[in-house]
Task: structure prediction
Amino acid sequence: MRRRVLPGLPLALGITLVYVAIIVVLPLAALIFKAASLGPADYWRIVSSDRAFASYRVTVLCALAATVFNLLFGMALAWVLVRYRFPGRRLVDALVDLPFALPTAVAGIALTTLFATNGWFGGPLSHLGIKVAYTPLGIIVAMSFTSIPFIVRTVQPVLEELDPALEEAGQTLGASDLSIFVGVILPLLTPALLAGVSLSFARSLGEFGAIIFIAGNQPFSTEITALLAFIRLEEYDYPASAAIASVMLLTAFVMLAFTNLMQARALRYTARG
Result:
């Protein structure tokens, strides 16, 4: 008899597929079918309304800003955690995962308390003319807080596995630190960075609990798409809620497909290099 690579693979595979179908596919299918119950004209009217477009703009622009911040700060944080040893390093490394463990509503309340005009951070910033709470900047802060672990945790293992000989070879050839980083390290980090950026951006698009407390939730100003879908749900307008949510779902799928394509190209480039 031919030996199987993994004993019990058919059973494990079947359980996994059933789990994915119930937990992932079924809710998405229900969302799509509910949105499809609308006619094309009604669907377009809902998703293209002025309020919906304003929520798309706020959500996407804030998510992009948060992702750019996470890309720069998260990569720097991963670099420091891997390349340097300092007192409290393990504590900082553990704090990176805090947004994963902390309920998003609790995070939103904490951020609002800190960045309100009478808060620890909001007070000094208000004296400088910078208002964070109840503005788009507060949305960016909340999105950055909840999604930064994706950047750090995808880049950190790759940095730990990099061969020091590559950097030593560049130094031997007289290359500057910047040239070594751009020409040697960054191409090797690109696949991990793309994965982290896509996950961070997707998390920012779908974030809800941490944002509603600090955003102010003003239509056409600080109202995100997830909140608008929730409002329609509270109004028992289930088709409209599903239609708005389907736009977010489509955006996430397109973004993930594009990122996977770019990641595959980066991996081929790294393999050839």
